[in-house]
Amino acid sequence: MSPAAPLPPASPPAVSRLLDWRVRFGILALIWGFSFVFIKVGTEGFAPFQVTFGRLLFGTAVLAVALVVKRDRLPRGARVWGHLTVAAFLLNALPFSLFAYAELTIPSTLAGICNATTPLWGMLLSLVALSEDRPTRVRAAGLGIGFVGVLTVLGAWQGFSGVDVTGTALALLASLSYAVGWIYVRRTLSGTGASNLSLAGSQVGLATLQLAVVTPLFTSMPTSVEVLPLLAVIALGALGTGYAMLLQYGVVAEVGPTTAAMVTYFIPVIATAAGVTLLNEQLTWNTPVGAIVVLAGAALTQTRRTPRRTAAPFAPPTNDTPTHPVAGNTPATNGTPTHPVVGIRSAGAERVGTTDGAPCRA
């Protein structure tokens, strides 16, 4: 991939400046952590594809309003829109649907923990897809530790008894889809000249169109609409897919993608606490222990060698302000961009920059 030309630093949205970035960071972690509860409640009243479509629809509405308020323009060029269509499928339509189907048979706590495996998938895939991203012993060890953590969560020594294999596999495939999507975005959407918000809004909008085609083919209109599942879907879309992306957009612009990506490690903790507290989901000892091991392994996969620096007494000062994240002008931490959709997850989710620890929404 050829290096992209530097773009002007992004400025945090005016509303975001009213709150300290740490507060917004905490709100972001809460929203994405609770997204797994919203999915679970939503599937109690709607088919999984309907939950995903509603999520994307309300998320698109929020991002569309933001685009109008900021007077931002949509990306240009058929090639860019083609790549955004693929990114929409890999980072939104597919993983959102897989998580919705997974939570028909697995608890939201397990889904949240599976979501945390995205950095592990990202490192594994980057070894093949990104020739410039070479592993270190520490990162390789992190991958192995993360794998042990997954086996611990699933209770491998018990023959995975009590765990729905299909639902768990779907949740892990959703996390894999995030990782593939980030690598694809890094390879194809760097240097487009469009803003983060423009790319994110366009991507979610395209994913909404994809689900608008698929949903009627596999589902039928519900005979009745229950209030709680409807509110859960609205919250999942408006907060978890729309507002959360705007929050992350501001945090990345203010403190950089590396710090913003740390939200990934809080999501499974919040998802587990929310599932146990609000949904009375059962929690055995191996679930939290395995989750800690997974997060430790994921953190190790994000470590980098410190490059040797040659003394340059008269070198010009550098600008530490993060440049346009999607343009690839931010530090890489595993070859996976923290595009605001993701989740800037991201994806969520509605998951900016080039870090493999990209926050991944449910």
Question: Nutshell version of this structure?
Answer:
By secondary structure, the protein is an all-alpha fold. It has helices at residues 21-42, 48-70, 78-102, 108-115, 118-129, 137-154, 165-188, 196-218, 227-255, 257-260, 267-279, 286-301.
The chain-level structural class is mainly alpha
H/E element order: HHHHHHHHHHHH
Stretches where pLDDT is under 50 for at least 5 consecutive residues are: 1-11, 310-359
Query: What is the residue-mean pLDDT, rounded to a whole number?
Result: 79
Percent range of helical residues = 55-70%
Report what the structure shows.
The structure is a single chain. The chain has helices at 21-42, 48-70, 78-102, 108-115, 118-129, 137-154, 165-188, 196-218, 227-255, 257-260, 267-279, 286-301. α3 runs antiparallel to α7 (165-188), α4 (108-115) packs parallel to α7 (165-188) and α5 (118-129) runs parallel beside α12. The chain has 362 residues and is mainly α.
Record keyword descriptors for this entry.
362 residues, mainly alpha, globular, disordered N terminus
Secondary structure topology:
Layout: H1 21-42, H2 48-70, H3 78-102, H4 108-115, H5 118-129, H6 137-154, H7 165-188, H8 196-218, H9 227-255, H10 257-260, H11 267-279, H12 286-301
Helix pairs in contact: 1-4, 1-9, 1-11, 2-3, 2-8, 2-9, 3-7, 3-8, 4-7, 4-11, 5-7, 5-12, 6-12, 8-9
